[in-house]
């Protein structure tokens, strides 16, 4: 069997297992949580949020929501979704069974890693759709908010989300290795939550936090155009991808040489 067939077979197997877990529903719940909260906020504060004539209400609605939710929510979500997906295997001793199968270990490791990334991408997509639908709903119920009178600047908002997603790659690599390595659900979850909180605190010092992966999601929004560049590319983007590649390679090597009991 070729490498591509091993990989695709692993992906199909992981997708089937994901559908039967809470991790699948978490992608939906997480995506709609903040849009629902913003709907409630707009309902109670509607009179103060009615835009002036000619002002596009989508700008404040979208930017405020993305800027206030993704920096703090995404690291926590990655820690939780990664731990949950791997707990499926650890709980049922599935790791031991998988490594006993006549398939290469790399297809198992990177197949699961791909599923984690896919789950995060799906959450981003659901999140953006939920924001748009919540704005349209508010526009129908309260026409004076003006959401139906202007089109949203999709590319601007999608760019913000894509920047946040790429900035999260460092956390994905670290958390996936930890979740794969330790059977105890509490270890990667507690470690990740602790570092995510530290990342929020450390982000107040951009000169130092650009080297701390758990701060990257915050910095991708807070610094914006002020982000330091390396060869014309955001330093957080480069460091995040480098961290992901290094931790993924190290994680696979560690698992490959590990005696699974």
TrEMBL record:
For this UniProt record, the keywords arranged alphabetically read as follows: Membrane, Transmembrane, Transmembrane helix
Task: Mention any Pfam family matching this sequence.
Answer: ABC2_membrane_4
Which CDD domains does the UniProt record give? ABC-2_lan_permease-like
Kindly indicate whether the keyword Nucleotide-binding belongs to this entry: no
Specify whether Transmembrane is a keyword of the entry: yes
Q: Which residues cross the membrane?
A: 21-44, 64-86, 115-140, 160-178, 185-209, 229-253
Its protein name is: ABC transporter permease
């Amino acid at each position: 069997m070729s490498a591509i067939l091993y990989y695709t077979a692993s992906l199909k197997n992981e997708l089937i297992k994901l559908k039967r877990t809470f991790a699948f529903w978490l992608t939906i719940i997480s995506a709609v949580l903040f849009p629902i909260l913003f709907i409630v906020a707009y309902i109670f504060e509607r009179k103060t949020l009615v835009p002036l004539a000619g002002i596009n209400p989508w700008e404040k609605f979208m930017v405020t929501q993305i800027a206030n939710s993704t920096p703090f929510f995404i690291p926590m979500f990655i820690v939780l979704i990664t731990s949950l997906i791997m707990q499926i295997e650890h709980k049922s001793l599935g790791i031991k069974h998988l490594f006993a199968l006549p398939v290469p270990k790399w297809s198992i490791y990177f197949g699961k890693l791909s599923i984690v990334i896919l789950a995060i991408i799906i959450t981003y997509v659901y999140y953006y759709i939920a924001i748009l639908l919540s704005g349209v709903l508010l526009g129908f119920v309260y026409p004076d908010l003006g959401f139906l009178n202007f089109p949203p600047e999709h590319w601007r908002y999608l760019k913000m989300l894509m920047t946040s997603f790429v900035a999260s790659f460092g956390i994905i690599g670290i958390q996936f290795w930890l979740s794969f390595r330790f059977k105890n659900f509490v270890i990667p979850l507690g470690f990740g939550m602790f570092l995510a909180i530290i990342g929020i605190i450390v982000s107040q010092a951009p000169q130092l936090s650009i080297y701390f992966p758990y701060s990257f999601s915050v910095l991708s929004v807070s610094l914006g155009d002020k982000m330091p560049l390396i060869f014309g590319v955001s330093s957080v983007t480069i460091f995040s991808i480098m961290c992901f590649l290094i931790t993924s390679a190290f994680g696979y090597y560690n698992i490959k040489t590990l005696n699974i009991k």
